[in-house]
Amino acid sequence: MINIKDVNFITSAADKGGFFLDSRVQVAVAGKSNVGKSSFINMLVNRGNAARVSGTPGRTRLINFFDIRTNGGDFVLTDLPGYGYAKVSKEQKSGWGKLVESYFETVAGVSVFVLVDIRHTPSPDDIKLIEYLYYKTLPFYIIANKADKQSRAQNLKSKKVIADAFKVGEDNVILISSIKKTGRDEVLDIIEKILS
Ligand SMILES: Nc1nc2c(ncn2[C@@H]2O[C@H](COP(=O)(O)OP(=O)(O)OP(=O)(O)O)[C@@H](O)[C@H]2O)c(=O)[nH]1
Ligand SMILES: [Mg+2]
């Protein structure tokens, strides 16, 4: 299994002009506000707070780029702003869509981790994102986070609900807990495949 050796914050971007682009593969973390995207990145890189975790949902407003060094190669990890936060204006909502869409349009060959909260049925926005990635033929991986919040039995039921909503097989839904740090090895295996 690959081993993450070093992590460094590169930059934040509010628009296309600020995107960090180089020859390395980019892996993006997308999902609804508050599902734990920033916590997932922190768990993955084994750093307390590399990606700032929001006390207030809807906090990550910019695209944050991180430089990740592993023994299997280097890549760029991006923390995308969360969508679907109720307390933002219509303009802010469409701003999210434009920023993220221009990211997917600009960065060639990005792989995407789509995070959902295991306790919730995927929202129309989640489904729209998956359909968009499918249409763009961008590889995506569905990660159901906060598995520590439910029993194992309930998690297995939720896994099926999530797989059905996204019209994928259950094997395509990876259960993790960013807080309890479970499921990390499976995610590292995926990253190893992406890099190979
Ligand atoms: N119990 C539990 N809580 C979690 C887990 N992952 C994240 N959280 C909590 O969920 C809240 C949101 O986490 P963030 O990582 O900020 O979520 P985010 O998706 O980056 O949010 P935005 O940047 O606002 O889109 C925080 O209070 C986290 O501590 C998990 O696996 N288990
Ligand atoms: Mg965040």
Which descriptors would you attach to this protein?
binds magnesium ion; Rossmann fold; alpha/beta; globular; 7 strands; seven-stranded mixed β-sheet; 196 residues; 5 helices; binds guanosine-5'-triphosphate
Overview of the molecule:
The chain is an alpha/beta fold. It has a single domain, classed as Rossmann fold (3-Layer(aba) Sandwich), CATH 3.40.50. Helices cover 33% and strands 24% of the residues. It has helices spanning 37-45, 90-106, 124-135, 152-166, 184-195, and strands at 4-13, 26-31, 63-70, 73-79, 111-117, 140-145, 173-175. It has a 7-stranded mixed β-sheet, sandwiched between helices. The longest helix has 17 residues, at 90-106. The chain starts with a strand and ends with a helix. The model has no long low-confidence stretch (mean pLDDT 89). Guanosine-5'-triphosphate is lined by residues 33-39, 53-54, 57-60, 82, 145-146, 148-149, 177-179. The site of guanosine-5'-triphosphate has 21 residues, from helix 1.
Write a brief structural summary.
Helices cover 33% and strands 24% of the residues. With 196 residues, it is α/β, with parallel strands linked by helices.
